[in-house]
Write a structure and sequence with these properties.
The structure is a single chain. It contains 4 helices and 5 strands. With about 140 residues, it is an alpha+beta fold. It is globular and about 45 Å long.
Length: about 140
Amino acid sequence: MVGGRWVTDQEADIVMLTEGIYKISWTEPTGTDVALDFMPNEKKLHGTIFFPKWVEEHPEITVTYQNEHIDLMEESREKYETYPKLVVPEFANITYMVNAGQNNEDVISEAPYTEMPNDIRNGKYFDENYHRINK
């Protein structure tokens, strides 16, 4: 449901809950709410995504660079049902972590693709300053 879905300039609430535990939460243009708890010292995270009913039923509308389709996202939020929401809680392991700097537009600059995580880990995606190779 989320493969190939991306957005930039997303406002998020980022807080440190306690030493070594951080929460990042936001609401997407689709109306999807996301809350992630990061535990970088343990290389773990827990996230919960709250998908509106319309996103579950029409994911094809959202699998895009959403910034170019904000009007469609807003129209779909009004046109289709929101409830009941699909709640997806998940744990994950953090397999790659680096400081790419603030306001680095290259970090989120294209739709995700299957081999992207491996390309990043293997040094085929970013240069030494975390700017995109071969744009």
